[in-house]
Amino acid sequence: MRTLSSLAFFALLALGACSSAGEHYTLCDDGSDCDSGLTCYTVAYEEGADGQMCSGTCATDFDCPGNGACYELVGDPMVGQRVCYERCFDDYDCPLHFACIPTVNDDTGETDAVCMPCDSSGCPR
User: Fold this and answer.
1) If we measure between CA atoms, which residue out of 7, 98, 2 comes closest to residue 53?
2) 45 with 53: CB under 8 angstroms?
3) Residue 16 placed within a domain
4) Could you say which of 2, 10, 40, 72 would form a disulfide bridge with 28 (CB–CB 3.0 to 4.6 Å)?
5) Which DSSP letter does residue 101 get?
6) Can you give the residue range of the structural domain that contains 95?
7) What dihedral angle (degrees, nearest 10) is formed by the CA atoms of 55, 110, 122, 20?
8) Does 122 map to a domain?
9) Burial 42-66, CB ≥16 within 10 A → b, else e
10) CA distances to 24, 43, 89 from 93, in Å
11) Count of C-beta atoms within a 10 Å radius of residue 74
12) Which long-range contacts (CB under 8 A, 24 or more apart) does 94-102 make?
């Protein structure tokens, strides 16, 4: 089972929806703007720094749109919850108000990077 760790610490709070286009990997505010089948998740990329994004659950990377990555969330109150993240090489690959955060696949030791929503104080870089 893949988990996301190392340079990113994840906590999850399921909210109701998003406040932009409502598609996968877009910013959210509350429970009304994510497309059908998606949820607005609060995700912490480091302790004390979190943001919200629309996403869906997944079992493998193939369940995620585009070149998405499916990771089990550390700190998820629903043990085993897996959510799609958009892969990236640098911040320019991510939507506005998202940062490309390096991660490590605990199962394989391979490095990866995913776009994480920034908190209200801004992106970490």
Assistant:
1) 98
2) no
3) yes
4) 40
5) E
6) 4-117
7) -20
8) no
9) bbbbeeebbbbbbbbbbeeeeebee
10) 15, 19, 6
11) 15
12) 95/25, 95/26, 95/27, 97/27, 97/51, 97/123, 98/25, 98/27, 98/51, 98/53, 98/123, 99/45, 99/123, 99/124, 99/125, 101/7, 101/8, 101/45, 102/6, 102/7, 102/8
Give the span between the Cα atoms of 65 and 93, in whole angstroms. Answer: 15
Collect all residues with Cβ–Cβ distance below 8 Å to 9 and sequence separation of at least 6. 44, 45, 46, 47, 74, 75
123 occurs within a structural domain: no
Is 58 domain-assigned?
Answer: yes
Asked if residue 122 has pLDDT above 90, the reply is no
Question: What total of structural domains would you count in the chain?
Answer: 1
Residues 11 and 33: their CA atoms lie apart, in Å, by 21
pLDDT tens for each residue of 64-103: 998 899 887 655 555 668 889 999 999 999 988 889 989 8
For residue 89, what is the DSSP state?
Answer: S
